[in-house]
Amino acid sequence: MPRLTISLSARTHRALKEASARQGRSMGAIIEESLELRGVRPISTAREIVARARGRTELTADDAMALAVRETALHREGR
C-alpha cells in the first residue's frame, strides 16, 4: 500500500487522533473514508458508473457521462 505524508494543524491532528481512538479505527482509515466521501476516486470509478448507467438505459455515452457528472456534483453538494 502506498504511503503519504501530510501536514495537519495541531488542532486537526488532535481531533483526528481522538476520533480514531473513539471509533477504534486507524487515522488512515478515517482519512481515506473522508476522501471518498468528498468524491476523491479514480477515474475508472466514474467509467464504471457510466457503463452501468448505459447498460440500463438508451443514453448515449455523452449523455450518460453528463448525467454522472451532474449526479456527482449534487452528491458533493449534499443534495
Radius of gyration using CA atoms only: 17 Å
Distance between the termini: 33 Å
User: Quick one: how many beta strands?
Assistant: 0
Number of helices: 4
Give a structural overview.
- The chain contains four helices and no strands.
- The protein has two domains: 8-40; 43-77, no CATH class.
- It has helices at 10-23, 27-37, 43-55, 61-77.
- The two termini are 33 Å apart.
- Helices cover 70% and strands 0% of the residues.
- By secondary structure, it is mostly helical.
In short:
70% of the residues lie in helices and 0% in strands.
List keywords for this structure.
79 residues; mainly alpha; 2 domains; 70% helix
List the helices and strands and how they pair.
Layout: H1 10-23, H2 27-37, H3 43-55, H4 61-77
Helix pairs in contact: 3-4
